Amino acid sequence: MTETIKRPLVAIAFHSGYGHTAVLAEGVKRGAEKAGAEVAHIPVDAITDEDWQRLDAADAIIFGSPTYMGGASSAFHAFAEATSGRYLTSVWADKIAAGFTNSASKSGDKLYTLNFMAALAAQHHMIWVGLGLPPGWNALTASEDDLNRLGFWIGAGASTPQDGGTDTVNASDIATAEHLGARVARQADIQIAGRNSLAHR
Ligand SMILES: Cc1cc2nc3c(=O)[nH]c(=O)nc-3n(C[C@H](O)[C@H](O)[C@H](O)COP(=O)(O)O)c2cc1C
Predict the structure, then answer these.
(1) Could you report the per-residue pLDDT of 6-39, keeping only the tens digit for each?
(2) CATH number of the 9-199 domain
(3) Care to name a GO molecular-function term for this sequence (predicted)?
(4) Domain ranges of the chain
(5) 135/152 Cα distance (integer angstroms)
(6) Which residue puts its alpha carbon closest to atom 4 of ligand 1?
(7) Average pLDDT rounded to a whole number, residues 164-180
(8) Which of 25, 60, 107, 157 is 20 to 30 Å apart from 181, CA to CA?
């Protein structure tokens, strides 16, 4: 008899002050859905009780924030601090985690934001999944249109002109965000299948 294995639930917990990071969150969502996951799309500055339940039920949580003043936004930090009750009870232990950020400058100190997300995940005993792409745009033969054009490993990093609208979010950054969503959905799938397999040993 073939067993039906549940689709992974991937939650995207993100903040976007002016809409640019939200465009990337949509990319992450598309990638995860294309890879077969159910997605809970959660803007953390308007989080509801139902959203918290979805986060607790999720197999994976992908964190997203703009980089403001060299770190995650205050709204994302407020969300992170509000998870402290869950930290105390290890409710999120062994969920898969990943992160993405966006800022105006090509570097813009985005790595601090991704590192903060990885530390947040570690404090919850989550399992951090990196971007899983080689760095793009770093050779004479390379192009700005490469996936992972800004060369991050720990998560997805995007750069959007500070004076541009949401329609100026870079296409390869959006594709990189889609890749992250698909990768996390796949890893969640593998984790669920592995747990099922161990249960039958
Ligand atoms: C308060 C504030 C601080 C910022 N700090 C940085 C920064 O440290 N590095 C950077 O490259 N861009 C910085 N930016 C630019 C934003 O990261 C950029 O405009 C981003 O696209 C905003 O994303 P959002 O529309 O999702 O809020 C800052 C913007 C604001 C409003």
Answers:
(1) 899 999 999 999 999 999 999 999 999 999 999 9
(2) 3.40.50.360
(3) FMN binding
(4) 9-199
(5) 7
(6) 68
(7) 98
(8) 107
